[in-house]
Structure prediction request, 253 residues.
Amino acid sequence: MPTILITNDDGIHAPGLAALKEALEGLGTLRVIAPDTERSAAGHAITMMHILRVLDIYRNGDLYGQAVTGTPADCVKLAISNILPKSPDLVVSGINPGPNTGTNVLYSGTVSAAMEGTIYGIPSLAVSMGSLQSKQDYQPAGKYVRKLAEQMLAKGLPKGVMLNLNVPSLPQDQIKGIRLTHQANYHYNDKYEKRLDPRGREYYWLSLEDAEVIDSSSDADAVAIAEGYASLTPLQFNLTSQEFMNDLRKWEL
Prediction:
């Protein structure tokens, strides 16, 4: 029976993680290893200057999983190297309450956890919802995850490639299906609000602003979600620009 490592960046108590575990029940031996608290936008950070602890988490008297006092990438690295008796057959990260599309994947702890599995050569999937609603219905996303997990266990993925799934925050009957996509070209209109703490000292708080989508093609991930489709994008960790390599060789270096 395959071993499936389940993780996230929202912390081990996140409802999206519980929904992910429920969606994968019966598909293999499920191991939940996730951050002890929220680590959203941690990117692919790993802990080097502080110790890591692993805490057993119980629900209704049963072991639910292990909480790691580190980042999402820490969780996957520690799970593979120390916690699990053998390397997992599949890594699934999520379900994140908010989209991880376009350049946002570079900041995403959800995507980075799955990418860490890919670095280890394990088929890996990141899954996110299309909006930041406080209350989410994760069941439609769970159904897509289940189908993809079955396919990934049966067929695997190419070396160095992971899958990034984003599902609209819509009822199941309103989701039009899956569209294969590429990363949209967009950027956030970042704004830092300056405030004063109770002692009169200045601090800054990043506000969440709407993203400006530059790429309006129908097969861009952000566009697919806006049009009611689940977006499925193959990602890779090799960021080398092969297109520019020949031009770079002509530079006087």
Remarks:
- Helices lie at 15-24, 72-83, 109-119, 139-155, 221-226, 242-249.
- The chain has one domain: 3-183+217-238.
- The longest strand covers residues 29-35.
